[in-house]
Amino acid sequence: MRKTLALVALAALAGCASPTGIVPIGDGIYMSSKLGGMTTYSGGQVKAELFKEADAFCAKSGKKLSPVTSTSQDVIVYNYASAEIQFRCV
Length: 90
Prior knowledge:
2 helices; 90 residues; alpha+beta
């Protein structure tokens, strides 16, 4: 029964990446994070997607993306690939 529940939960989460959206964190800095899906093994790939979204976000204001920090984690057993970025629009 436990195994079935775990598989159902995993299947529910597996269909898509999980973005948190772009969030202001103070002093003109924004943060965004995301989990990759079942076919995304590279944290770098997730990070690239975040930077594309951040670039589009800044472009809407007529500004350019300026990265502040970023981290990523490749897929490991029981954990999806993930990434977080912090950036400014200048």
